[in-house]
Amino acid sequence: MKNGQKVLTVALTGLAPAVWGSTYLVTTELLPPDRPLLATTMRALPGGLVLLALGRKLPVGIWWWRALVLGVLNIGAFNFLLFVAAYRLPGGIAAMVMSAQPVFVVVLAALFLGERIRPVHALACAMGVGGVVLLVFRGTASLDTTGLLAAAGGALCMASGITLTKRWGRPEGVGLLAFTGWQLTAGGLVLLPFWLSLEDLPGGLTGSNVIGFAYLITLGAILSYIAWFRGIERLPAVAVSFLALGSPVVATLLGYLVKDQTLSALQIVGMVVIFLAVVLGQPRPPGPKSEGTPSAPPRTTVARVPDRSALTQERGG
Questions:
Q1: pTM, 2 dp
Q2: How far is Cα 77 from Cα 18, in angstroms, rounded to an integer?
Q3: pLDDT tens-digit readout, 122-137
Q4: Which residue among 27, 184, 272, 313 has its CA within the 20 to 30 Å range from the CA of 52?
């Protein structure tokens, strides 16, 4: 992949977590209140069914259970644990714990994908966690054990989903639309019983609710997950994992721009540190070739011309 194409792929993949960073604002401002599982299920399941209809391809053989595993890790379990952590951990601690996700990917990619653990990755992980701490931490807060476990579990789910998606790839003859639809549908079906058992059905939907759900289904699911899985195919797993750190940055900026929340100097520093961590986590372009000793030219066979004086001597004169 050429450098220009790689930069474009990184940018398109980074749009997915940027869109996901807007989910909190959309949920609180446009959707029925206190129904996070409804929001998550409605984002995943309808979008998955739309992509299945467009892709016109169902899993075959081993891909039935692989699609289920990927759908649970990337969408169903991840989103469920994320909302549990967000409700039980005040002060941005959930985002801090979730920012450890690249650390998990670095280890898992080394174990299952053969990607080398480089010192720059360790530095980028430390910078990513530190940047999120500066961005979201708001003093002391109660540490709920269930919330902490949910946040750690969500980070591990996302890391495992990235790693397995990269390891298994996409089956031959299956387009990206169908592949994304498998996972969204599987994740939505896993969430469906939790939503129906833990939350009440809304009494009615307003115009704002409809706009909010349309946003989550189109941008928040269909387009963003297509870009995300496309990026996992084309980039190293570790590079993709660092792009997810863009979510809390976008959420913070939207809170400042739309909800008149404050933005401190430490938060700005945190954003810069996160940006540098994301840059460090991306694959390095190949260095220029050494201009030292030039390579030897290819050896060619040259016909030997007989020495005229030697021929003359042989002929006696």
A1: 0.84
A2: 20
A3: 999 999 999 998 888 7
A4: 27
